[in-house]
TrEMBL record:
InterPro entries: Metallo-B-lactamas, Mito_Persulfide_Diox, POD-like_MBL-fold, Rhodanese-like_dom, Rhodanese-like_dom_sf, RibonucZ/Hydroxyglut_hydro, Thiosulphate_STrfase_CS. This is MBL fold metallo-hydrolase. Residues 264-355, 370-458 form the Rhodanese domain. CDD domains: POD-like_MBL-fold, RHOD. It comes from Methanococcoides cohabitans. Keywords: Metal-binding.
Length: 475
């Protein structure tokens, strides 16, 4: 048996192909299936099965896409009550792919319908060699049980059983292949390592070392990070079967004059995906700012209304196409086009623009020292805020700015800060949409402020998957 892991940055998602001589299965696929087709072709495999561990909340799955392209059988939990045709599996069921025997364990907790797939490679022996456990068990963490309102304690209790009475009964050498890694909000504190073993997790996973059921329930239902809005939508879409990508409208370049007319439609929003510095210099009034190089998919799914058509402003057609792929991954399928020629063409057409003043760390420090009159809104998560913040700051996480802005004075000078400048630009764009007249973004955020020697180091900002690369909350 050969296993190939596919890791999707930005949503920190791990999917897998595992196969023998001529056939293979894909586990928890992304919606963009070309990568699986390419790997299967490279390995000389026919994709015969698509295994879903659960109805994913943080992304739209590619199970329907793969079935359409390959004719593969979708394997899904019977308790998910999926609307599409599938091989419905429950506890104790098994099936074979060449010499591999795949046994089903019901492992609810993260979601009610969750299963894990335990694989025995009979060409090697008669004991399990690996488990594809979805979002039940991660490296250093376990799946959060609080995504279903009013059911957190019930699901946390079921998760205890799934972990201690099922997964921990597997041999220590059994390899563990989870569906997410560091940067995902499907858990609280996943490690950056992308696979593990039962024995390793038995030793080092904090949750597995909580032996008392009530203690684990308490640990997993207190102080969890907020769940993005699209988490409540994607599960339903995955259960009924998402639209095939080929039936979605193609992305088109829209000249400024036509773009301007579309902007006037209340059923349409503008999403500016350029870097926050470019957005600050000049942008279309009312646009959302979500930098394509930030945690784009998560914050788009979190902040953007799903019932609106989306117009993109980008630096290039390629960036617009890339953004459309990410938006489709989080159930934002109403992407209709991008501004042809970008903001330069918009300005040359004489159309109106706004700007967002960028404040440097020294400028902010001078304002703090001079005790100037302004409101400083820190839009980081509460855990980040508690790790170190500027004294006069008030903490409103970026996703809450959509509603909590009503408690702020729209006429006051308002500075917005986060860890780097990305989330604060998102929040500042929302404030501008709601008629805040004097908004400023702190460029470099608390990372820059601390680097300049004006504040304490932020432990979270120093983590390697937060300070570099994709798949982190701020960048």
């Amino acid at each position: 048996m050969i296993i190939r892991q596919i890791f999707t940055d930005g949503i920190a998602h791990s999917s897998y192909l595992f196969g023998g001589n001529t056939t293979c299965a894909v586990v928890d696929p992304d919606r963009d299936i070309d990568v699986y087709m390419d790997v299967a072709s490279e390995m000389g495999w026919e994709i015969t099965h698509v295994l879903e561990t659960h109805l994913h909340a943080d992304f739209i799955s590619g199970h329907i896409e793969l079935r359409e392209r390959t004719g593969a059988t979708i394997v899904a939990p019977a308790s998910a009550n999926c609307s599409f045709d599938s091989m419905e599996v429950s506890e104790g069921d098994s099936f074979e792919i060449e010499d591999m025997v795949i046994e089903v364990l019901e492992t609810p907790g993260h979601t009610p319908e969750h299963v894990s797939y335990v694989v025995t490679d009979r060409s090697r022996g008669e004991v399990p060699v690996c488990v594809f456990c979805g979002d039940t068990l991660f490296v250093g963490d376990v799946g959060r049980p609080d995504l279903f309102p009013g059911r957190a304690e019930e699901l946390a209790s079921k998760l205890y059983e799934s972990l201690h009475e099922k997964l921990l009964k597997l041999p220590d050498h059994c390899e563990v292949y989870p569906a997410h890694g560091a940067g995902s909000l499907c858990g609280r504190s996943m490690a950056a390592k992308r696979s593990t073993t039962i024995g390793y997790e038995r030793l080092y996973n904090y949750a597995l070392n909580i032996s008392d059921r009530e203690d684990l329930i308490h640990s997993l239902t207190e102080n969890m990070p907020n769940a993005p809005d699209h988490f409540s939508r994607c599960s339903e879409v995955n259960g009924r079967g998402p639209e095939l990508l080929v039936v979605l409208p193609p992305l088109k370049a829209i000249p400024p004059a036509d773009f301007s007319k579309l902007v006037e439609d209340p059923g349409t929003i503008v999403l500016d995906i350029r870097c926050y510095e470019a957005f600050g210099g000049r942008h279309i009034p009312g646009a959302y700012s979500i930098d394509l190089k930030s945690n784009f998919a998560t914050f788009s799914g979190w902040l953007l209304p799903p019932d609106k058509n989306i117009l993109l402003v980008s630096d290039s057609p390629d960036h617009a196409s890339e953004a459309a792929v990410w938006l489709h991954r989080v159930d934002l399928d109403r992407v209709i086009g991008f501004l042809e020629g970008g903001m330069h063409a918009w300005a040359m057409a004489g159309l109106p623009t706004e700007h967002l003043c960028q404040v440097s760390s020294p400028e902010l420090d001078n304002m703090v020292r001079d005790d100037e009159e302004f409101i400083l809104v820190d839009v980081r998560a509460p855990s980040e805020f508690d790790s170190g913040h500027i004294d006069k700051a008030i903490n409103i996480p970026v996703e809450e700015v959509r509603y909590s802005y009503k408690g702020l004075d729209p006429e006051a000078k308002t500075l917005v800060i986060c860890g780097s400048g990305h989330r604060s630009s998102m929040a500042a764009s929302i404030l501008q949409q709601n008629n805040f007249s004097d908004v400023h973004n702190v460029s470099g955020g608390m990372t820059g402020y601390n680097a300049a020697g004006f504040g304490p180091d932020c432990p979270l900002c120093a983590l390697p998957w937060i300070s570099s690369g994709k798949g982190k909350m701020d960048e």
